[in-house]
Amino acid sequence: MFEPKVSVVLPVYNVAAYLPKCLESLLNQTLKEIEIICVNDCSPDNSLEILKQYAAKDNRIKIIDQTNTGPGVARNNGIKAATGEYVGFVDPDDWAEPEMFAKMYTAAIEQNADIVECGVKIYNEKSGKTKEKQGFAAVAANKGFCAADYPEYVFEGITSGWNKLCRRAFLLENDIYYSDGRAAEDHYFSIAARLKAKTAVCLPDALYNYFVRASSLTHSPSKVNLAVPLFLAEIAVLIGKWEGREQNRNPLPSLFACNAAGLAAIHYRRVPVENRAEYLALCAQKLPAEANRLFTDFIKPYTLKDNLFSIRYTVKGIQKYKVISILGLKFRVKA
Fold this sequence. Notes:
Layout: E1 6-12, H1 19-27, E2 34-40, H2 47-57, E3 61-65, H3 71-81, E4 86-89, E5 95-96, H4 100-111, E6 115-124, E7 130-133, E8 164-167, H5 168-173, H6 185-196, E9 200-212, H7 228-241, H8 252-268, H9 276-286, H10 289-299, H11 304-308, E10 309-316, E11 319-326, E12 329-334
Parallel strand pairs: 1-2, 1-4, 2-3, 6-9
Antiparallel strand pairs: 4-8, 5-9, 6-7, 6-8, 10-11, 11-12
Helix pairs in contact: 6-7, 7-8, 7-9, 8-10
């Protein structure tokens, strides 16, 4: 009987032009003991037909057909249907290097890890540029660690789900799932997994290929971004319950304030103009006070008076900066 070592969850919606390349990259993995769980999110194009054609040729492909409820719900249904020891995630317009899951699974077994992350190659359709990005480079490759060792790991690097491999039992036991929203729905998942993993491993190899489409939902103005303050509030609850360090020395609230402010600012710009007042109200209501203060400073336009003299705050990643403006000149120092 076929027992997969890895289950790969693939949410599918309106990606017929990209789907064959993605599926081929998964079927050609050097790790053969995988199952590919394709969750069709009521795709309006012929993506489902493509899935059926591939499934007829390879019994490692499983298809779940659901009503249109978004990629977060699709991935959650994939996790529930998975049977592999570990679960990985791929977006249908991206593709994996042939050795991706073999290398990640080997690292997971050798280190008895709950989560393994790898580096990424990012292809930008609009600019035509390519760059590589590592997940978390503070530790040596293949060396196990946890959030108590490196608290900055929880928020740093890539907080998407697609460069990660997670022990399935770990996800189920800790009730770690994706947010139901359609914007940054994997942010909560990644933070929760990093926070609760007893052992994490980061590989420097760029094993995942991320394709940034100009027409992607992620980068288009939409009301779906209104969900961002809601799941940031859920992350704040997780941070409050964390017992990795004694509370009086716990750096996570400060790190989270920077992370939440930066993410809130990114998605504020993706909210339609007519919905921005609602977004601001949600942030004021849902974000911790420090995060909301940083966020409002971050997005506030400079007036003539501000340019003459002002002291404001901004963030980059998990670092907070003080921005001092004097006669139109701006000086940025770590805060």
